[in-house]
Design goal:
Layout: H1 2-16, H2 18-24, H3 29-50, H4 59-85, H5 88-95, H6 98-110, H7 116-132, H8 140-164, H9 169-194, H10 204-229, H11 234-240, H12 243-256, H13 264-292
Helix pairs in contact: 1-10, 1-12, 3-4, 3-9, 3-10, 4-5, 4-8, 4-9, 5-8, 5-12, 6-7, 6-8, 6-11, 7-13, 9-10
């Protein structure tokens, strides 16, 4: 369990850097995610081929896992859309609502009773988000996109956990990347019809950022996350990911000076989000020690 929590927090640290790439890369959100999925899929195919571990599974499972990858791709599109429509802080703050959506959606999808303790932890995080970010009409579009992104992320994590129990980590990641890329390839022509661009090709700087994003913050990140989901509940994973906005906001403050408008409410909200994560973490450790204790 301790190893799983270490991997979880390392994955959160890597995830905290993804919002920075969304600001650095000049491509629109649709093309950004399409290239991210393309490069991640190619890198992972190459890695598995060199290790002679390329997985062959039934077509039914390929489509199922690929559909989960489609959810991931759509989540990324809305996430980067939120950042580009507002700023990094808005996009990552809205992402903290994932725990709220998970607490509501997971009981419905997995057909079990709602755990009101999880709702309580989620509301504590929501209160922290409200305090950190004072709503501003200038960011209305970014907020809407960010909320949709967090709902899609919750759906991805819940469905991913169900399938991850039946397949190795590398199988899940490979077919999720391929499935996400295929889904977005089908949607991209329609997307570009409504949101046309001058060119679909990344410049050398964007290409460098895309390769870093695809290798370190995609393949590395989701290898860790899928392993973590085998040992820790989707709710706990998503709640711990409330730390991601904190890392991203700090980086945004350092590189893009987004912290100029932050005040005491930011630090109070930060404390609430940290409290929710700490409470849930202690509870999981306590439950684990009870199960493993000798009778």
């Amino acid at each position: 369990m301790k190893e799983a929590f270490f991997k979880l927090h390392l994955s959160v640290l890597l995830a905290g850097a993804t919002g920075i790439f969304g600001r650095l890369i000049t491509l629109n959100e649709g093309l950004l995610v399409w290239y991210r999925l393309l490069f991640a899929a190619l890198l992972f195919c190459l890695l598995l081929s060199l290790q002679k571990k390329f997985p062959i599974i039934p077509w039914k499972e390929i489509f199922r896992i690929g559909g989960i990858g489609g959810l991931l791709g759509l989540h990324w599109v809305f996430f980067y859309g939120s950042i580009k429509a507002s700023n990094i802080s808005v996009g990552v703050i809205c992402f903290s609502l994932v725990s709220f959506f998970t607490a509501i959606l997971e009981p419905w999808i997995n057909r079990h009773r709602i755990v009101f303790r999880e709702i309580l932890f989620s509301l504590l995080s929501v209160a922290g988000i409200i305090l950190i970010f004072q709503l501003d009409t200038r960011y209305r579009q970014g907020i809407i996109l960010g909320v949709i992104s967090s709902a899609l992320a919750a759906l991805f994590t819940i469905t991913n956990k169900r399938s991850a129990a039946n397949h190795p980590t590398h199988t899940m990641l490979l077919y999720e990347m391929l499935g996400g890329f295929s889904c977005l390839t089908l949607l991209l022509p329609v997307y570009l019809l409504f949101f046309p661009v001058k060119t679909i090709w990344p410049n050398p700087v964007d290409l460098t950022y895309l390769l870093l994003l695809s290798s370190i913050c995609t393949v590395g990140l989701y290898l860790l996350q899928i392993q973590v989901l085998k040992a820790i509940s989707a709710f706990t994973v998503n709640l711990t990911y409330n730390l991601e906005p904190i890392y991203s906001i700090i980086l945004a403050m350092l590189f893009f000076h987004e912290g100029r408008e932050l005040n005491g409410a930011f630090y109070l909200g930060l404390g609430l989000i940290l409290s929710s994560v700490i409470l849930q973490t202690f509870q999981v450790f306590f439950q684990s020690s009870e199960i493993n204790s000798p009778e």
